[in-house]
Amino acid sequence: MSEITPVRILLESDKCIRCGNCFAVCPVSLTARMNKFPGPKHIGGDIPRPTHEFEVNDDNLFLCTACCACRDVCPGNISIEEITRVVRSKIVESGRFAKTLKDALESTVKYGNPWGLPRSERAKWTKGLTVKDLSKGEKADVLLFVGCTNAYDTRSQEVTKSMAKILNKAKVDFGILGTDESCCGEPVRWIGETGLFEELKQRNTELFEKHGVSKIVTMSPHCYDTLNYYYDLKKTKVQHYTEFLYELVHTGRVKPSKKVNMRITFHDPCTLGRKHKVFDEPREILKSIPGVDLIEMERVRDEGFCCGGGAGRVWLETPVKERLSVARLHEASKTKPDVVATSCPWCLTQLEDAVKTIGDEHVKIKDVAEIFAESIE
């Protein structure tokens, strides 16, 4: 949609006909925060008229996970999540927001990632693997844009290693940006730091141009969304790794041969699924693996339920009874799976935390790339 200004927010919120569709699908409203739903009426009512000055200091605005479920069912086509983001930016300008979010922003400024870890450790996951590093002058046909969580989080690093093994098995000429890679800017954009996002966008775009990048494969749906929607990369094709891996499998460049006896249910990441309609590729990848029994939860695809980690929520503490990941894991457990699979680092983190919260160690949370890598070893 076009740039959202204070006046446009008023116009957008005035389109709300109070039908309640957004309440009916919002994962936040479906847990314990119905009365705190950050919908258009709530947002529009917090903007004083007629000056259109923002004076919002409401933690409820940070409950939104940008899952986009509300947007899909709104008869007025109101982009509630985008309106929420812009109002958040005014709160961020005033400094009235959670310290954990401030720390994530400060770390991104200092280190190029929101996790508080130095650039020198960004490519440590490659130790012992064959991975080209463009920052060292090497060239490659495909840039694997690793992303912050997949580069630094020890659990998500296992997913990245699995993907590197798959690409090498398929003889894909790929490389990474190494210590030069910075956050794509998705988290800071949703937190509300628009200026920092623009700086990251410029830095990364210049790096892509410097290395002549024409094809990017991202590990995270959030990087995929940001590079596709909010960067101007007209000459560069951007794919999520499940799309790219599906093509490799479909064309026979890599073939799973080892039997993996698993009863699996797949959790659709909101950004990859509902927003970009990438539903079939991860499922087809899993179906291609010998021994996999793929079963579906009650709410999948467009009706999938959010893990709760999007739009900066991964850096905010949430009471157990309000954790969307716990509700989602309960739903997944009804299918009696061995593994709940996903294809997003934040979903992986949130669902694994849910396993620990519930205390059900019988269910494993794995990424599609990890499962596929097991089948080609």
Helix and strand topology:
Layout: H1 6-14, H2 21-25, H3 40-45, H4 69-73, H5 80-94, H6 99-111, E1 132-133, E2 142-145, H7 148-152, H8 154-169, E3 174-176, H9 186-191, H10 194-210, E4 215-218, H11 221-229, E5 237-240, H12 241-250, E6 262-266, H13 271-275, H14 280-287, E7 292-295, H15 324-333, E8 339-342, H16 345-358, E9 364-367, H17 368-375
Parallel strand pairs: 1-3, 2-3, 2-4, 4-5, 6-7, 6-8, 8-9
Helix pairs in contact: 8-17, 12-14, 15-16
Question: Spans of 5+ residues with little confidence (pLDDT < 50)?
Answer: 44-57
Tally the helices: what do you get? 17
Mean pLDDT across the residues is 88
User: How is the largest sheet built, in terms of strand order?
Assistant: 1-3-2-4-5
| Spatial gap, N to C terminus | 45 Å
Beta fraction of the residues? 5-15%
CATH A-level architecture of the largest domain: 3-Layer(aba) Sandwich
Cα radius of gyration in angstroms = 21 Å
Q: Kindly state the percentage of residues in helix.
A: 40-55%
Class based on secondary structure composition and strand pairing: alpha/beta
**For the report, how would you describe the main beta sheet?**
5 strands, parallel
- Give the beta-strand count: 9
User: Can you tell me the number of structural domains?
Assistant: 3
Characterize the overall form.
Answer: globular
CATH topology of the largest domain: Rossmann fold
CATH class of the largest domain: Alpha Beta
The SSE order reads HHHHHHEEHHEHHEHEHEHHEHEHEH
